[in-house]
Amino acid sequence: MIFFFQMLINGIVVGSIYGLVALGFVLIYRASGALNLANGEFVIFGPYICLMLMTALQVPFLVALLITLIFSAILGLAVERIVVRPLQNAPVISVIMATIGLSSLLAGAVHMIWGHSTKTFPPVFPQTPLNIGGIIVTPVYLWSFIVVLVLLIIFSIFFKYSKIGLAIRAVADDQQAASSMGMSVKFVYAATWTIAAIVAAIGGVLIGNINGVNPTMASIGLTVLPVVILGGLDSVIGAIIGGFAIGILQNMAGGYLDPLVGGGLKDVVPFIIVLLILMLRPHGLFGSRGIERV
Questions:
Q1: Do residues 152 and 240 lie in contact, with contact meaning Cβ atoms separated by under 8 Å?
Q2: Total domain count for the chain?
Q3: Residues 36, 24: contact at Cβ < 8 Å?
């Protein structure tokens, strides 16, 4: 049972980060109907910038994190202006293909600037593990979960009560009606890409503190894709619940099934779940069901 709860706690923490990163996927999809397949590269840029500031310039972690978020916001805004906005009236597949090209470009930039080796953050959180009833919890896992939980609450309040949040929801529901009410669709697009880049950077920094930073972190973009499909591509709540579900199931598979098959099943489980969901509920657990009138 101790091993079970250990895997459960690890899954909850990792799943909460998945849910945070998936939030960026959902926002962009709701606003434009397109998937940002460069989201994994958004994730790895953040921790590399933060780590460079901390190690090369000796900047304190909180200051480095703030600068990282500003850089990520600028990156997201630049991508929307340079790559996405010219394709605003193009078919959705054009935007998706553009993000694939952007993904390759950003991945190449990461390899050229920072290389291929794994880099570790200086100690940011306390190092002494916590023993809770025989279950060992490292402080970085605990603090990561607390940070993500607080951020998810803040974003929920933001989308429900702020003017920008309400505008994003309105454009997601009906662009034409929102535009006729005086809302700027272009501004909403810019806001969604900026927020998506920020949450991706935060998720990357948290994962970097747990596992270190290397270019393979970009694979989280593919791992989070099953999360948003499971929860529903247009559902914020679905992204959060889907993140927890995938994180827990992935860690349980790694703990119990990987030793039986020689490893590797942990990385496959999210995609097996996606196949099952697509067969049973193509719109996801909380996604909007498409209605077609004939």
A1: yes
A2: 1
A3: yes
Domain membership of residue 269 (yes or no) is no
Element (DSSP H or E) covering residue 280:
helix 265-280
Taking residue 159's Cβ as centre, other Cβ atoms within 10 Å add up to: 18
Backbone angles phi, psi at 130, to 5 degrees: -100, 135
Element (H, E) at 136: strand 135-137
| Residues paired with 135 in a beta bridge | 132
Q: Which two tokens stand for residue 283?
A: 């719109």
pLDDT at 288 over 70: no
Q: Specify if 292 maps to a domain.
A: no
Query: What's the distance, CA 260 to chain centroid?
Result: 30
Task: Check: CB of residue 63 under 8 Å from CB of residue 2.
Answer: no
Residue 194 maps to a domain: yes
- Could you tell me the residue range of the domain that residue 82 belongs to? 2-213
User: Tokens for 161?
Assistant: 């009560």
pTM value surpassing 0.85: yes
Q: Concatenated DSSP letters for 193-260?
A: HHHHHHHHHHHHHHHHHHH-B-GGGGGHHHHHHHHHHHH-TT-HHHHHHHHHHHHHHHHHIIIIIHHH
Among the listed residues 241, 244, 223, 221, the one whose alpha carbon sits nearest the alpha carbon of residue 286: 241
CA 183 to CA 177: how far, in whole Å?
A: 9
Query: Nearest-5° angle of CA 66, CA 52, CA 55?
Result: 105
Q: Over the stretch 198-210, which tens digit does the pLDDT of each residue have?
A: 999 999 999 998 8
One-letter amino acid identity for 180? S
Structural domain contains residue 189: yes
Report the alpha-carbon distance of residue 128 to residue 114 in Å, rounded.
Answer: 30
Q: Is 281 helix (H, G, I), strand (E, B) or coil?
A: coil
